[in-house]
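Quarterly update from the structural biology core.
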Amino acid sequence: MGYKIAARALARGHRVTLISGPVKITPPRVQRLILIETSEDLLRALKKEIKKTDCLIMCAAVGDFKARKISGKKIKRKNNLLVNLKANKDILRELARHKKHNLFVGFNLETENLVRNAEKKLKTKNLDIMVANRLTKYHNPFGDNNLDVVIIDRFGKNANLKAKDKGFIANVLLDKIEELWYLKRKGKL
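Predicted structure, tokenized:
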């Protein structure tokens, strides 16, 4: 999804810095590409770039938890192996203190209460827009497939997009971002 948004933003004449983890697809030819591997790398790169950014679009699927300890060698099969987890930092919450003139866009993945949970995150993370994805047995937003999403803005306006490809969703999202940016520039936000 991030690559589609970056490509569509470029086509509209926006300058794009793309921060990307390891993927098997070719990135669009953005002005700046920053390659990362971990959530810590992502947070570090974002803290460095945020001051130069008008709009932050966070569509990365960073896990809520990570292994407390990483083994440098193969773990042999054992009975009753336990994996201890610890919470990853909430990247958007960490960046909220750096939000001044920027617009912040988040993505969330839910298995239940899609709109209610998305609206809650929109407020608690001080976002301008939230794109809510549902994960079910029949609906998986990962990969190259059509999605059902709800785009919610800070004014409570919802756009329900059903069975749309990622390029279409990227264009609808960019329309909303440009509208909010215009309102912000005019002092109406």
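The domain at 2-63+87-185 is CATH 3.40.50.10300 (Rossmann fold).
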